[in-house]
Amino acid sequence: MIRKEVFKLFWVIGICCIMTVECSQCPESKSGMLNVHLVSHTHDDVGWLKTVDQYYYGANNTIQRAGVQYILDSVVQALLENPNRKFIYVESAFFYRWWNQQTSEMQQTVKNLVSSGQLEFIGGGWCMNDEAASHYNAIIDQMSLGLMKLNATFGDSARPRIAWQIDPFGHSREQASLFAQMGFDGLFFGRLDYDDKRNRWKNQQMEMIWQASQNLGEASWLFTGALPNGYGPPQGFCFDILCDDAPIMDDPKLHDYNVDQKVSDFLSAAHEEAKGYATSDIIMTMGMDFHYQNAHVWFKNLDKLIRYVNQEQGKGSNVNIFYSTPSCYLDALHAAGKTWPTKQDDFFPYASDHHAFWTGYFTSRPTLKGYIRTTNSFLQAVKQLSAMAGFGYDDRLEELKEAMAVAQHHDAVSGTAQQHVTNDYSLRLSEGVDKGFDQMNDAFREIANGSSASPKLDFFFCPLLNVSSCPQTENSDSFVVSLYNPLARPRNKFVRLPVPPNYGYKVIDHQGNSVTAQLVPLPESLENIPGRSGSTSLFDLVFLAVDIPPLGTVQYHISRTTNSRIIRQQLSKLKVPKNGEDFIISHERVTLTLDGSSPNMMKIQTQGETDIKKRVINQEFVYYEGMVGNNSKEEFRASGAYIFRPDGNDPKPLGNKLKIKSLSGPVLTEIQQVWSPWVSQVVRIYDGTPKLEMEWLVGPIPISDTIGKEVVNRVTLEDMDTHDTFLTDANGRELLARVKDHRSTWHLNNTEPVSGNYYPVNSRLILKSANSDFKFAVMTDRSQGGTSLNSGQAELMIHRRLLHDDAFGVGEPLNETQFGEGLVVRGKHHLLLSDFSTPACDFGCLHRSLGEELMLEPVISIAPTSMDHATWRETQKTLWSGLSAPLPSSIHLLTLEPLNVNMLLLRLEHMYEQGESEKHSDPVKLDLKNLLSWWEIVKMHETTLSGNQWKEDESRLKWKVEKTNDNHIRRETNYAHNSDRDFVITLNPMEIKTFIITVEKKSV
User: Fold this and answer.
1) 251 burial class (0-12, 13-18, 19+ CB within 10 angstroms)?
2) 263-291 per-position pLDDT tens digit
3) Quick check: is 148 in a domain?
4) Residues spanned by the domain of 967
5) Rounded CA gap, 384 and 801, in Å?
6) How far is CA 103 from the centre of its chain?
7) Which of 534, 555, 854, 861 has CA atoms 20 to 30 A from the CA of 793?
8) How far apart are the C-alpha atoms of 951 and 992, rounded to whole Å?
9) 3-class DSSP assignment, residue 319
10) At 541, which CATH number?
11) 711-732 mean pLDDT
12) CATH code assigned at 262
């Protein structure tokens, strides 16, 4: 096993600096003056037009002249030249590449600059993550990765206080809540809807207190400011070598002397900006994308600007300008003692003009979005297993963590990078998964392979199970299947393994019992996916794995047989309906009928305890034609990677010649549908599961007609009145109400009736009847764009292929290909009806528990073996759990991660909102001392959410607010938990608690 020096955590314990003016060495604002805080910064995309490596080194400059290493080299030298200069840096992914290449002398120089306040870290995550398509689990991970490294390098004095989301294309309420829980004092962002900005500017409400959780109260409140110029300087004051603005030419002997004009222009810009803000302190961002590669140019001109503008004070000017940072600016605002307006909703969707709604990226590059989601699940499993096996720091785990963190960048998971960069993101994930599986295998051997004399099983990971391809199951006469469950509660899983024809299979569980299995023929459209020709599988072998233990593994022994009786028993029974004949499938409480005269019409009948509920659902795949345009004016905007702009408000049908057949057996019944040559679907009801599964396959989207297409899955419930309201999740956590053609903070004149009503759907879209208690949810397996344009209707966009760029920078159409053909996407939607509820699990329980299961799927690994099942059971540890007991059903183990050999990072989460579930929304008390099976917790110390500050040291700024929403509680923050004796904690709805725990091996 590859080992490195144990990752060290440096905790600055003592008097905590609350970042007052004296403490943070901020310049002092002058009373009675307009104080302008100049913030020198660079925005360094962790991949976009170039790969992260190319951006760091400055390679491939034919695409974009950008080299981050030169920025940091240059800025450090410029700061040393003048102690008044200040600079902020954001992206830890780039900083640590640079830091690790520096001499110890240069590292000490940088530490001195940080200590003096000249160099300040802002944001501090591994990247500046997207806020629409990122899952909260991945957001927390990427922020923690960067912040904990900064803490380990510089101590608490470098801890960022300001969240800096200047480039993401819309802003999530959950993101703000997470920032607040990480201990940030404020958030600044650059992109604000053009209509919202006009309204806020007029009312001097560009800054506010964001009440970011209706469950957590003041612990989620965050000062939030929209920057005045996006994140660039005022017009005429871009002094970078990449800019064309004139420098300050201050030699009066020269013909182009311009000091007077520059000073006049700046004073005008400052007074104009002040009109939109509520105090006598304003902020100006002096930098843009990859600026300061020659920092001397910027700083020399800013030195002059400060000198000449401030000289005007002697002539009666009231403008005072100086080098500053966002934290200094925030302290000045706090010192003003103002009462601030509040906000309770979010900043989606973002529009930059009447016809540019940035809602296409909610779906762009759906295979990358799906890959990132499954890799996140895999990462959590590797971290858990590494912790339970007693591993400390390991390069392999670190590589996987960094690959996942880079993938959260706002041009990565968003799907808005160039194709070659997208390929690089995928490659990094693939390499990280390979390293992670190697470490997982080591952990399995450490934990679960029985005695040292046992035959060792070599497990393999099958990354192409999503297209029913796995060499180990296709080519082995017998093999062992291991399922690792990363949830903290037992779960069941219907396992699907690709196998070749002409065989039956004996499936034996860990107790030696035969397990019922079914052979299901693959849909023809799946067999014909481009690039799948190397697979020999024509069937999926399906069986139910029962009670996979929490943070544990169960194994199954599977062997081929040519026994004709077994083959006949396992083969699915095929039925093709006659014209007009209804199709009926049922399992236990649920019966699904497909109308023979209208195959996209489904009737669902649910047997309750006292009655039968009947619903009629119309499900169809349709597509919007992407708008064509040259982008020369607003009205000529094309649909592209960022922008969703359909040509017309009504989508096109795929036709009504739906081909259909059913396959039934002892494990499941499924209906295979072919909607068109490039759209197909499988509808499944598994025995004993309260959901309807729709597995769709879309592509290659045809473009021979030169028309781009944006495909949606539309589900409509008959006679359901929802009053134009629906719910979407925020990054997989809290739900927000959405109202068609409505914004909470201004009157909307919706110039794009379809795309202007699209919102990010990270995990679920929910409809509630206005006339009854009936609810309906569509659960997703990746981030998508969604809406409800008609009452009782849910619409989710699942694939896009476009032929024109939208002119927002990426510079190429969203036209993904694979193996020389258009990209094919395979994914799932899960339908939940409140009719499926039981006394033990109401609708809140249904969608929360399923959401947790979809986020953290079991990790399936395969070990070919010559052992028979008896030998396998005698020699292998076929069932184990890393927990002493399952956690309560409302508690989610969010993080279990090794920091060193006997120190772990632990996060526990209450995954229900207040009042969401009658039985699951109450506070929960837990005793954690014996949480783990093999490790005893001997000490636990609570930290902020990001793990980079002790909870008792947290001291966030308090703000006066104009009003509070009655639905927002004012819960007092719980005391920090720091104990080597008392291990009992309480979790309230939607609360996450983070601990550094010290463990010792339990005596056997």
Assistant:
1) exposed
2) 999 999 999 999 999 999 999 999 999 99
3) yes
4) 891-1001
5) 38
6) 36
7) 854
8) 12
9) strand
10) 2.60.40.1180
11) 96
12) 3.20.110.10
Most confident of 391-395, 551-555, 978-982: 551-555
User: Which amino acid would we find at residue 438?
Assistant: D
Nearest to 667 by CA among 493, 522, 847, 859: 493
Residue pair 10/151 in contact (Cβ under 8 Å)? The answer is yes
Tell me which DSSP letter residue 219 carries: G
Q: Is the residue at 660 inside a domain?
A: no
Indicate if 849 and 865 belong to the same structural domain: no
Q: In degrees rounded to 5, what are phi and psi of residue 116?
A: -80, -10
Count of Cβ atoms closer than 10 Å to residue 958 Cβ: 10
Q: Give, for 99, the enclosing helix (H) or strand (E).
A: helix 92-99
Q: Is residue 913 part of a domain?
A: yes
Tell me: do 31 and 74 sit in the same domain: yes
Q: Residue 258: count other Cβ atoms within 10 Å of its Cβ.
A: 15
- For residue 508, the number of C-alpha atoms closer than 13 Å in the C-beta half-sphere is 19
Kindly report the backbone phi and psi dihedral angles of residue 998, in degrees, each rounded to the nearest multiple of 5, phi listed first. Answer: -105, 130
- Which of 339, 358, 393 terminates a domain? The answer is 339
765 plus 850 within the same structural domain: yes
CATH number of the domain at 954, please. Answer: 2.60.40.1360
Distance CA 810, CA 48 (A): 7
Structure tokens given for 672 = 């295979």
Contact between residue 172 and residue 131 where contact means Cβ atoms under 8 Å apart: yes
Catalytic sites, residue numbers: 167
Q: Is 316 exposed, middle or buried (0-12, 13-18, 19+ CB in 10 A)?
A: exposed
Q: 529 in the Ramachandran plot: left (φ > 0), alpha (ψ -120 to 50) or beta? A: beta
Residue 511 lies in a domain: yes
Tell me how far apart the terminal alpha carbons of the chain are, to the nearest angstrom: 25
Provide the β-strand partners of residue 768. 775
Whether residues 631 and 496 share a domain: the answer is no
Residue 273 and residue 201: Cα distance in Å, rounded? 9
Q: How far are the Cα atoms of 156, 565, 710 from residue 159, in angstroms, in the given order? A: 5, 67, 43
User: Cα separation of 499 and 518, whole Å?
Assistant: 11
Domain finish residue from 339, 369, 388: 339
pLDDT score, position 974: 52
How long is the chain?
1004
CA–CA distance, 787 with 12 (Å, rounded to integer): 47
What DSSP letter does each residue of 43-108 carry, written as one string? B--SSSSS-HHHHHHT--TTT----HHHHHHHHHHHHHH-TT--EEE--HHHHHHHHTTS-HHHHH
> Same domain for 954 and 815?
no
pTM metric for this prediction: 0.95
- Dihedral Cα 530, 531, 536, 539, nearest 10 deg: -50
Do 782 and 920 share a domain, yes or no? no
The answer to whether residues 868 and 807 belong to one domain is no
SS3 content of the chain, % helix, strand, coil (to 5): 25, 30, 45
417 and 52 Cβ atoms separated by less than 8 Å: no
- Asked if omega into 521 is within 30° of 0 (cis), the reply is no
Q: What pLDDT, on a 0 to 100 scale, did the predictor assign at position 452? A: 59
Work out the mean pLDDT of the chain and round it to a whole number: 93
Q: How many domains does the chain have?
A: 4
Q: Please indicate, yes or no, whether residues 252 and 155 belong to a single structural domain of this protein.
A: yes
